[in-house]
């Protein structure tokens, strides 16, 4: 039913469970991706202006490895790390305050839902607007 050369996109829980069984994914990976998707679609978070919405999730084949992914809004400026590296001059204190002011409400929204992020870093922050 599944070949290693094809890419699959799953949007329904039933399809994901069948894929996990068929592709032999370990339970750990499925639980990770399902938890992330559940958090991103949680009602208090899904409409938050500083929080990404999950459109879906699935798995791709990369050589012989199955790699899970989440589909979120496109971030034209990339991650915060990529954005900072692309700047031609050092970032101003005011711009740093703006960036922190955008990240803090998203983190606060997580905490209000009883969720601890646990991996806050430049690579986990998407830059959408200038």
UniProtKB/TrEMBL annotation:
Pfam families: Pkinase. Residues 1-130 form the Protein kinase domain. InterPro entries: Kinase-like_dom_sf (IPR011009), Prot_kinase_dom (IPR000719), Ser/Thr_kinase_AS (IPR008271). GO terms for molecular function: ATP binding; protein kinase activity. Keywords: Kinase, Transferase. This is Kinase-like protein. It comes from Trichoderma cornu-damae. The lineage of its organism: Eukaryota, Fungi, Dikarya, Ascomycota, Pezizomycotina.
């Amino acid at each position: 039913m599944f070949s290693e050369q094809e890419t699959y996109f799953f949007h329904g829980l039933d399809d994901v469970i069948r894929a996990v069984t068929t592709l032999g994914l370990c339970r750990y990976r499925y639980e990770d991706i399902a938890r992330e998707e559940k958090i991103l679609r949680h009602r208090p978070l899904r409409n938050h202006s500083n929080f990404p919405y999950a459109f879906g999730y699935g798995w791709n084949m990369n050589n012989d490895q199955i790699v899970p992914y989440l589909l979120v809004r496109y971030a034209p400026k990339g991650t915060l790390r990529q954005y900072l590296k692309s700047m031609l001059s050092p970032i101003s204190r005011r711009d740093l305050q703006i960036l922190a002011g955008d990240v803090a409400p998203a983190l606060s929204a997580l905490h209000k839902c009883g969720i601890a992020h646990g991996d806050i870093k430049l690579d986990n922050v998407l830059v959408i607007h200038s």
